[in-house]
Amino acid sequence: MKTILIIILSVLLAPGLSFGAPAPIYVADQGATGWQTYTYTAGPEGFTGTAGFVVSNVKDNAAYSELILDNLSHGGGGTNQGFELGNLMGYVLTSDSFGKSSAMVNSSATTINGSAYNPIQGSFLLIIQGLSSGVSTSEFRNATGQIGTVGSTLETAITLAPGETFTFNWAFLGNDLSPYNDFALFYLKDPQSGTINFRELLAQIGSPPRVPVAAIILLLDADSS
Fold first, then answer.
1. Number of domain units in the chain
2. What's the whole-model pTM score?
């Protein structure tokens, strides 16, 4: 008779260990990520729907963070992926009973500490602002469990064939201070049901949480009795 003993151990890993995901990136108070590249690969059924980008305030309204976008491989109505029309044609800034999302197409962006961001390609980039007059972001949360309060959401329609990639360049400007850990994320949404079926945190203010990981040890007792 064999006895299988399964022992589940909770192991606290050191902050910052990566499991292959491109995000999230944690920034210090009033810190920034620098330009990053995100890649999403569609599954065997491909994807047709809405890509969304969120920058959210957390708790306070004293300062707001920003998400910079540029050089999308899809979206923008097929002609404005890099915002080179100088406007938001092909994109939608959402609104609700709380307020309206805010974003601006510009030739550059500047952090709260004065560092400049220039476009990855072309002459323009987009700055999405997490203003206190923005939409509710309470359906989202950061990696430390803090629920969003208000901010901005930008959406655009995309279509991906099976295995096709969707890429974009982004930077998070964390203009706030801990413990108000503002954040930014990317999601994919079904346009008919409105269901978000994929989301990934891009960046936030603060430090990575200590993540418990279950370790399973199998001990086999070869006792035949």
1. 1
2. 0.83
